[in-house]
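We were asked to recover a plausible sequence for a given structure. The inputs and outputs are reproduced exactly as logged, with field labels preserved.

PROBLEM: sequence recovery
POSITIONS: 447
GIVEN STRUCTURE:
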């Protein structure tokens, strides 16, 4: 039996002093060994080789030492970069690889020196024609510049190429037919309450914790008991192992108090310290138990519990696709949206709870308190999350454990209670760490 061809034939030294790779029995000389240009050409050749079913192009010259660096070389080098940089972030890695594929499709064989602002504008028009909004189109255009910036840092292309690309101004409102993005808004608590009736206890607890703390969805999904400081019985401090600004050297600490404390406590018991508190397996099992309890047909007839609809298949431990040990932000969002659909309420996402929490705390305690709650370094970012809307003051009663229940028809009294509570609310900002802590009456819950 013939040996299977390798996906990545080796990059090796040739007696001529050049780098060499052998594809289909043909030696391709790539230029000076171990130079950035030779490695970029190597990666570009491998990409084409694998795309052609592990067959080298017959018209491809074997002497590539004097051939120019093409757009294909630029994208191939960047693909190798993101494989390492985003090894643990599959969605972002796929995103960048998709942009590289687009560049390859349009301009793979074009010398990188000839890729300028006009061709970048052509790529941008493809994004607009696909129905993307203006903000997304501008962000994708910036990423393409970032791809060429990496090639400049690897000394593959001249810096003037990047300078020319950056002269293309971003699209502004009214400059094109691209639609405007819809701003994410806080979610109404009545909608959250109706959705919660269709959630498993695991997912319901996640919603309660996120609504009370304003955490990002990925931070809620990653809660483990080993990451929580339980020195004080009524105030836990959660320090996420991974979070959005960790690469900036910022340490984040989130207080778990009030309703968040009550929601999380049951999931801290009888669990390994390094295991995730919110388990998809427990959530799936709860849904299965609910369906079994509502079963009308006798278990001795039809498909028994744990059986698939098709004959002979099994669910549970024998299923090919099993629930994971941790929710991702996407699986969490999909579960909430499915429950919202069952409840026949407007669609919403868990991330909107972060906006709701920020708006409530800002109204009650000010922008500085909301900034500390969200862990932002600058108040301008908090302004994006926390809208100044007095009519939403009643959100405070759910999201902040320092406030009394507020009613929309009793705004002055609720505001007075909020101001009194502010006197017992301590905001501490330390170098690289932000957190909020306070004491007061626990808020009533919607669940």
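RECOVERED SEQUENCE:
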């Amino acid at each position: 039996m013939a040996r299977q061809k390798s996906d990545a034939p080796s990059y090796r030294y040739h007696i001529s002093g050049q780098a060499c790779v052998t594809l289909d029995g043909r030696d391709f000389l790539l230029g000076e060994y171990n130079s950035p240009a030779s490695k970029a050409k190597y990666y570009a050749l491998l990409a084409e080789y694998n795309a052609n079913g592990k067959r080298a192009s017959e018209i491809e010259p074997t002497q590539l030492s004097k051939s120019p660096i093409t757009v294909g070389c630029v994208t191939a080098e960047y693909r190798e970069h993101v494989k390492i940089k985003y090894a643990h972030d599959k969605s972002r890695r796929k995103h960048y690889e998709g942009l590289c594929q687009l560049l390859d499709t349009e301009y793979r064989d074009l010398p990188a020196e000839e890729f300028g602002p006009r061709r970048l504008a052509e790529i941008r028009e493809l994004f607009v024609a696909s129905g993307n909004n203006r903000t997304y189109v501008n962000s994708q255009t910036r990423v393409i510049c970032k791809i060429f910036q990496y090639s400049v840092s690897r000394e593959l292309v001249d810096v003037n190429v990047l300078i020319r690309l950056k002269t293309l101004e971003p699209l502004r409102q009214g400059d094109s037919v691209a639609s405007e993005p819809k701003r994410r808004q806080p979610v109404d608590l009545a909608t959250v309450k109706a959705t919660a009736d269709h959630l498993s206890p695991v997912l319901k607890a996640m919603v309660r914790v996120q609504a009370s703390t304003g955490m990002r969805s990925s931070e809620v999904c990653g809660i483990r008991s080993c990451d929580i400081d339980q020195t004080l019985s009524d105030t836990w401090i959660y320090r996420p192992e991974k979070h959005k600004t960790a690469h900036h050297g910022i340490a984040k600490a989130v207080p778990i108090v009030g309703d968040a404390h009550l929601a999380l406590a049951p999931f801290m018991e009888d669990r390994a310290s390094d295991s995730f508190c919110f388990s998809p397996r427990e959530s799936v099992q709860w849904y299965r138990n609910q369906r079994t309890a509502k079963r009308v047909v006798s278990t001795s007839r039809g498909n028994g519990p744990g059986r698939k609809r098709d004959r002979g298949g099994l669910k549970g431990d024998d299923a090919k696709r099993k629930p994971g040990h941790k929710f991702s932000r996407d699986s969490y969002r999909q579960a909430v949206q499915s429950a919202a659909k069952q409840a026949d309420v407007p669609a919403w996402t868990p991330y909107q709870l972060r906006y709701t929490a920020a708006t409530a705390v800002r109204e009650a305690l000010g922008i500085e308190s909301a900034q500390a709650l969200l862990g932002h370094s600058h108040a301008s970012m908090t302004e994006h999350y926390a809208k100044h809307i007095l009519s939403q003051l009643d959100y405070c009663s759910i999201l902040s454990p320092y406030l009394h229940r507020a009613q929309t028809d009793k705004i002055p009294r609720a505001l007075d209670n909020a101001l009194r509570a502010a006197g017992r609310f301590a905001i501490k900002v330390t170098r690289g760490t932000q957190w909020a802590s306070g004491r007061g009456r626990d808020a009533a819950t919607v669940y």
